[in-house]
Amino acid sequence: MISARAKFLVGGVLVLGTAGYLMATSIKDTGMYYLTPTEFATKLSVDPTFRNTGVKLGARVVPGTIQRVPGGKEYAFQVTDGAQVFPVVYRGIAPDTFTDGVDVVVEGRLSSNGTFQATTLLAKCASRYENAPAGAPNDKYKQTPGYKSGSRA
Amino acid sequence: MILVGELSLWVALLMAAWAAVTSCTGGVLGRQDLIVSGRRGMYATTAMVVLASIGLWTALLTHDFSLEYVAGHTSANMPKVYVFTAFWGGQAGSMLFWSLILSIYSSIAIWSVRDKAADLAPWACGVLALILLFFLATTCFKANPYDRLAFIPADGKGMNPQLQNPGMAIHPPNLYLGYVATAVPFAFAIAALITRRLDASWLLIVRRWSLVSWFFLTVGITLGMWWAYVELGWSGYWAWDPVENASFLPWLTGTAFLHSIMIQEKRGMLRKWNVVLVVVTFLLSIFGTFLTRSGMIESVHSFAQSPVGTWFATFFLASTGATIYFVYTRLKDLEATAELESMVSREAAFLYNNLVLVGIAFSVLWGTLFPLISEAVRGSKITVGPPFFNAVNIPLGLLLLGLTGVGPLIAWRKASTANLRRQFFFPVVAGIGTGLLLAGLGMRNVHALIAYTLAGFVSGTIGQEFYKGIGARRSIHGESLPVAVVRLVARNRRRYGGYIVHAGIVVLFCAFAGLAFKKDHDVPLRTAESTELVDPLGHRWRFVSQGISTSETLNRFVTAIGLEVFRDGVRQGILTTEKRQYFDSNKQAQFEPATEVGIRTSAMLDLYVVLAGVRDDTAELRISFNPLVVWVWIGGMIMAIGGLIVMWPQAERRRAPSGYVATLAPARAELAAMK
Q1: Any B CB within 8 A of A105 CB
Q2: CB within 8 A of B277, min separation 6: which ones?
Q3: Is B151–A146 a contact, with Cβ atoms under 8 angstroms apart?
Q4: pLDDT values of chain A reduced to their tens digit, one per residue, 153 residues
Q5: Domains in chain A, ordered, with CATH?
Q6: Contact across the interface for B383 and A34, Cβ inside 8 Å
Q7: Hey, where are the domains in chain B?
Q8: pTM for the whole thing?
Q9: How far is CA B671 from CA A79, B115, B643, in A?
Q10: What is the ipTM of this complex?
């Protein structure tokens, strides 16, 4: 007679095993590389077939490059991390925060003509929750002459 | 007052250090004078933190823009209520807010056991004082809301419009109240480990505070979903974003604990496991805070990245290390007093419930951290998104839903065939009936069908319990139906409160399953143009554009579009959706444009319209049909109400305790005497 404890353990292993299996397979199927343009370019030069892999590209929109294709819901723009530049085409509704110079995450793949075909476009806005985000606006005050960090009156 | 507040903050830091040192020394030496002094130190710390908080509120409400925090988070033209809530709207303020809640909680917890649990109290006080010391030190040195600017700006920078929403005003404090409450069970667990007093006395106080934490987390998460839905305009309420996951994790382990503690109470099993769950729940709360504040994980919610990250990491590792040490050295004291007897028993159902909850927690944690793990192991960052979380959590969630029906009805120790037949015949029929009915009506989505079948089954169990209970009361006491319902719940709050929570869970799952039938349409509309769409229930909707208008109010420019809405040819009214550009006192644009969603709610379906953009006179609209969304909020509310019923203090019943419960009786009497 197998003890209840052993039976429970078998059941437990089954449950956790299934969960583990689901985790492993779904990471394999839906996991995506999250790359900067430089990393992406490096991967492409090492392995040209990498262009068929869907990736997420985290970069900044090059100011002044956003174009709306007339008559369609298509946006064309360029993204960069300061070193590599990729032209991106995105079809769909862009978020409110999508403007010149914001950080975006585009998801998609590189087409044969060298344009990144994005299926999703996320604009990250550092000032979304903290009005005084990393580095920027608070530092505006800090650059003011006479500002002393943490000074108390 | 502002100066007083600032000074109080520093005094609070010293008092917390005092309370920590005297309490722990008092615990070691067993010296009553030190113990009392430590306790008073905790009260004094609380008073000082309250003063420091009043000081910050004063600064905010009097628009003292010499404070960097006030200037950075509010402006003169903002509604007063949001000036008030700006207290926890930013990094420094939220750290102080955290300390405020923790100090008040600590004082209440310590006060409630002041003459009881003599061995535990000093250590619990010491641990709480240490945690408080950490938060106060971080506030003072790394994120001080009293930091001043060298000059006084004419106006502040205002608050992000997306935060100027009633949901956002009350969602964060609820989450904080939930996160911070996990510190009390943690402190008592550590105290019990240190003193090796691992009997029942710590369990009761730990359970009470775990419930408090669970209640506020439930309310906080529900409000967060509601806010995301009505304010962010992406037509969903949960995106498996790291910040959302961070609040979900302690909820999962806390829920697991509230179930497994029942097995310890009744049967003396799972004692190690319960300690681990208490500790893990607290650590996950700290970890969640750390995660959201350190900028380690890519999140759409970008909080300011700041130096508090390192402090949190250190604190997190130190607490983990200390806990592992104490649990390891006390393993012998945590031996179970009973064994699992059968797979067909309530114990087994609860064990599986725990396994699934912790499994979900683990998968969520894994998915959240996967970018970091993959970068560390394989050198490139790989992210997983909603498909990952859904693939793992839909099956686990459905299993959990099924267990929700089994657990409360199956017998302890070993269920007999008669028990199974008596308890489960009707619910199983109800479940299968629901599934067949929906399939007959044409529902073909497998996940949704399983979800609704299980929902029918669980509803069957809950309904049956209420039916039996009410029937018994009516025949024994001759009570009318409403009286019987109220008394049934009031006299067995834990049991029937629990069922009400389960009913809320069922409602939530039904609402989640509704998402399988969600439909989105992107539609461009010129003035007077119309479009026709069919919703998932087969109704034909017609939308006629009334044209785009622009206007200017208090602190924003508004671009709005009105749609005349018809359903099956019947006019439903005008639905408007707006895009808003906020500006400051000088009419300078502030923040990115915000979306004001047009939502028309009904029991079966939300109509959700977003103005995505305007080109010439064409409005680009996203029109979504979101089935059953309103039931998410209702389910959350039912769960919260159930939680309140369970939590509500109850006069101890005179019932002869039996089994392991008998050993709890003295502790129960002790707790009752405290009230």
Answers
A1: yes
A2: B253, B254, B256, B257, B260, B354, B358
A3: yes
A4: 567 778 888 888 888 888 888 888 888 877 888 888 888 888 888 888 787 778 888 888 888 888 877 656 788 899 988 888 899 998 877 776 787 878 888 888 888 888 898 888 887 654 433 333 333 333 333 333 333 333 222
A5: 31-124 (2.40.50.140)
A6: yes
A7: 1-159, 519-630
A8: 0.87
A9: 63, 11, 20
A10: 0.72
